Amino acid sequence: MTGHREPTVVGVPNFNAMEDAATLRAAMKGFGTDEQAIIDILTSRSNAQRQAISQAFTHEYGRDLIEDLKSELGGHFEDVIVALMLPPEEYLCKELNKCMEGLGTDESVLIEILCTRTKKEIADIVQAYERLYDRPLAEHMCSETSGDFRRLLTLIVTGARDEEAGVDAARAAESAQQLFDAGEAKWGTDEEVFNKILAHESFAQLRLIFEEYKNIAGRTIEQAIKAEVDGELKGAYSAIVECVQSAAAFFARRLRAAMQGLGTDDTTLIRVLVSRAEVDLAAIKREYERLYDKTLESEIRVGVVTVECVENAGAWFAARLRAATQGAGTDDGCLVRVICSRAEIDLAGIKKEYERLYDKTLQSDIEQGETSGDYKRALVALLGPA
């Protein structure tokens, strides 16, 4: 992984934290919430600028901006906005903690976060984790993993990777031979050798080692790992190898997997988009299109606010209203919140989008649903003429 950066979010010039704090306060004050104003500000500011806005908000209004946002928003939209508001290392700490708490551990999240970051990024995460949870990350991780997978992650978390030594061709050839001898050249695999090299060497040095490996073995290190290793250890090794060759391609594949199959893995989708927006999301988008012949934007479906609400807020709110009126029972809270909060903003546009998407009017679905009496009449009155 190189130091080359291709962010999609770089912040704004002539930044004024107090003005942004005032705009956000106005967007949440009174009857209804102006979600578009929140999106326009928080998706275009850098994380450092968002932290300054948060401080200005507290200083001027004596309120916590994140708590105010949580009280006004909901669903995955809230998840995106809160993720944007947290310092990067704190957000990743919360994701790590969440994947290890409760029954079972999501090893794929451990791999995605810990096997793809630089030594400095890992150090920031480790420091923040102990501050947030009063427990070392390594200790928590060791209680949730086992075997060579645990040993590999422990090496990474304790800062074993040497990013200062530079690139050495002779040492790369020696390491490549060690990998070959520990895997393909023997019965079974000596994972200790793989762990030592993959967790200790810099990404630049690993790139050279993998080139040397192909010269020695006649096939790629990816092919060797696929043949020699299985389970979560295979996933961790593969993530390191993929990020050495192209971190953008690795994250593009993560995004693709999150959007395929039954339903969308919104947690992964949000985590990758938010955590890479100021790093290399432009490169990830380009790799996604190269790998899958589709743009990332086109693949993110209606209901995923990260793209849809920015491009078409009416369609996003129409989808929420549709979900609230379908299935077993009616989500009255959602109906009231959306209709009341958008009545003086863009409810006419939402009604049009609802009819375009579902070939039914919003009024007819509410009238035919489980609402009744004065409650129904009040909602329909707010909707205005059909």
Brief characterization of the structure:
By secondary structure, the protein is an all-alpha fold. Among the domains are: 69 residues, Annexin (Annexin V, domain 1), CATH 1.10.220.10; 70 residues, Annexin (Annexin V, domain 1), CATH 1.10.220; 74 residues, Annexin (Annexin V, domain 1, Orthogonal Bundle), CATH 1.10.220.10.
CATH superfamily of one domain: Annexin
Poorly predicted runs: 302-308
> What's the mean pLDDT score?
89
- The total count of helices amounts to 24
Please report the distance between the alpha carbons of the first and last residues. 56 Å
CATH class of one domain: Mainly Alpha
CATH fold-level name of one domain? Annexin V, domain 1
In CATH terms, what is the architecture of one domain?
Orthogonal Bundle
Question: How many beta-strand segments?
Answer: 0
Sheet-strand content, in percent, reads under 5%
Task: Indicate the radius of gyration in whole angstroms.
Answer: 25 Å
State the order of secondary-structure elements, H for helix, E for strand.
HHHHHHHHHHHHHHHHHHHHHHHH
Largest sheet: none
Find the structural class using helix and strand composition.
mainly alpha
Query: Overall 3D geometry?
Result: elongated
Helix content: over 70%
GO molecular function: calcium ion binding; calcium-dependent phospholipid binding; phosphatidylserine binding
Protein name: Annexin
Keywords: Annexin, Calcium, Calcium/phospholipid-binding, Repeat
InterPro entries: Annexin, Annexin_repeat, Annexin_repeat_CS, Annexin_sf
